[in-house]
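Exercise 7. Given the components listed, write out the predicted structure of the assembled complex. Treat all entries as one system.
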Amino acid sequence: MVEDEQRLAKMVAAGLTAEGYAVDLAHDGRTGLSMARIGDYDAIILDIMLPAMNGFQVCAALRQEGIATPILMLTAKDGEYDEAEGLDTGADDYLTKPFSFVVLQARLRAMMRRGRSAAAAPTVWRFGDLQVDPATRSCRRGDTRIELTSKEFSVLEYLASRAGEVVSKTEILHHVWDFAFDGDVNIVEVYISNLRRKIDAPYRRASIATVRGAGYRLAADGG
Ligand code: CA
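Answer.
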């Protein structure tokens, strides 16, 4: 997050940290730019009015250098001019101050989800004979096409994007359901069980392992 209002920056950083994000802060444009060049960030929250270099300049410089990290711009006023210019310089989304933390988080999550699926779009993931195709949102076991609901596919897609890693229920919930979802985190179990019934049981496989107390892991060999 690149923001010179330190109190706001600290509040947002604390909120995001509590939600499981790792947050680095820069308080001027030049520092923000050099951090964005070096760091492997999932997203950048970028204020416009900044010392040393403004947000438009930082954004334009990053895009010119081919750095495609999703950028959420913070505009101080409700001006269409800011919005248009922000998007022109290559920002992915904008948010007008003052904003609620809940809205910031939702926009950030949506932006990161778009970023990831766009990058992953041309790839078909293969795990043994299990194929997951994000472009067509379809899944196969060998030659058999398996019908999944949209949410089931999203859960599988998220596990696939992190195959071999343990993914917690909360992470799955945060990546697949939006912030408006206020139900039980155990909804994830229902979807995992549906997926197993469709992609594993008929083929006598076990591609989705339960890691007790931690979450789930998609086997890189398809189970
Ligand atoms: Ca500012």
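Discussion: Residues 168 and 214 are 6 Å apart (CA to CA). DSSP finds eight helices and nine strands in the chain.
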